[in-house]
Specification:
single chain; 416 residues; mainly alpha; 4 strands
Length: 416
């Protein structure tokens, strides 16, 4: 039976799907239209062949995104109005009850999603990434990673889910607050233990060797007042030729990690400038703000779920005749992206503003010119398109478009 909430959900679903497909098609057309010529501001730095490679890579990934969007949308409709979740409920409840039922239901949904995603992940890695010269992963390593991720997911996820379901069932009308406190503590714990307990299961981390680069980096850390538990090089090259650098950890367990592919390509002064940008995020409190925003949003969503959990129209409107905490949890997190998709540009705006602020910090404590040179190399090496569609970028890109970012840094360099 169609209810008002069913109509609202279908309308939001169709709107979000249409916008996603429209944005992706716009991006494909825009990148293709600008493929023949390097943008003037990059003409002296990036060869036409590299620009065209980036355009082809972006178009390939976007066409693939069209397929995954359609499949993900079909899966969502199958699980909700198509009766898939109702069928899983009947299957699990016939054999189990209480917390074991809830765990089985949630893991069943995750298993179905994972099985459907597997061929797409294989195609993404061994066709698209390989076609453009980025893949270095073997099939054996792919499945070894998958096995590790699955075991870690079960080992960590099962107790987490059981704890959440127990809190939902046992803490009365304020269960959402207790779940939020537990979830927040869990996230802080994972941030703390990830660098030393989880990440080494997938990659080898070696201390950064003595030399000019380490000397420059240590001097930068001193200037910026940043204390880390170590500088490490990660063997990212065994999976991909993409390069990157990042912070990981929390509190006194913060590590700075460089991909080996990044160090192979950039000079010591360019690496220093890239790290100065990352330190800018720390010194401008972006990491704290992002965590605070994440916790605030999770509190808001859990409160909202607390208002919906006892509403029969919420379940029946999404094609589920039964009503319990596990079903509420699954339904809510399945459909909430449909209703929040159009808020994407706000998140992108906040992230881009942080990127500009971090660039400004880097220009104060290192060389803006070195950061420009590093970014241009990374754009070329990672085949990042220089000509994204503006609207697509507004929705999806957490970093400013290359032309805007370089122009901003060049202004900072001129005023230094």
């Amino acid at each position: 039976m169609t209810t008002p909430f069913t109509t609202l959900f279908i309308a939001a679903f169709l709107l979000s799907l249409a916008v996603r497909l429209w944005l992706t098609l716009r991006h494909i057309r825009f990148v293709t239209a600008h493929r023949a010529e390097v943008p003037a501001e990059f003409a002296a730095r990036i060869p036409l062949a590299a620009h065209q490679k980036a355009a082809d890579y972006s178009v390939d990934r976007s066409r693939f995104a069209l397929q995954t969007t359609l499949v993900d949308s079909a899966l969502l409709m199958f699980l909700t109005l198509g009766g898939g979740l109702a069928w899983l409920h009947d299957l699990c409840s016939a054999r189990l009850d209480g917390l074991p039922y809830g765990l089985a239901l949630i893991f069943s949904v995750m298993l179905i999603s994972g099985i459907i995603d597997l061929p797409f992940s294989l195609y993404r890695q061994f066709v698209i990434e390989a076609r453009h010269g980025f893949n270095r992963m073997t099939l054996g390593l792919f499945f070894a990673d998958l096995a590790k991720q699955t075991l870690i997911g079960i080992g960590i996820g099962a107790p987490l889910i059981l704890a959440v379901l127990w809190l939902m069932n046992s803490m009365g009308s304020l269960w959402w607050l207790y779940v939020w406190l537990f979830w927040s503590a869990f996230n802080l714990l994972i941030m703390s233990v990830y660098p030393t307990w989880i990440a080494p299961l997938f990659n080898k981390f070696s201390p950064l060797a003595d030399g000019e680069m380490k000397t420059r980096i240590e001097a930068l850390l001193t200037r910026c007042g940043f204390r880390s538990s170590g500088l490490f090089v990660m063997d990212g090259s065994k999976r991909s030729s993409h390069g990157n650098a990042y912070f990981t950890g929390f509190g006194n367990n913060k590590r700075i990690v460089f991909f080996d592919t990044l160090l192979e390509r950039l000079t010591p002064s360019e690496v220093e400038a890239v790290l100065a940008h990352e330190l800018g995020h720390f010194r401008r409190h972006h990491i704290v703000y992002r965590m605070a925003l994440m916790f605030a949003l999770s509190l808001g969503f859990l409160w909202l779920l607390g208002q919906l959990i006892d509403a029969p129209w919420f379940y029946s409107g999404l094609g589920v005749p039964a009503q319990n905490t596990a079903l509420a949890l699954v339904l809510f997190f399945l459909v909430i992206p449909v209703f929040t998709f159009l808020l994407g540009p706000l998140g992108s705006y906040l992230s881009r503003r942080n990127e500009f602020e971090a660039d400004a910090y880097a220009a104060e404590h290192a060389s803006a010119g070195d950061l420009v040179r590093a970014l241009v190399k990374l754009y070329e090496d990672n085949a990042a398109t220089l000509t994204p569609d503006p609207l697509h970028s507004l929705f999806y890109d957490s970093h400013p478009p290359a032309a805007q970012r370089i122009a901003h840094l060049q202004k900072l360099e001129q005023t230094a």
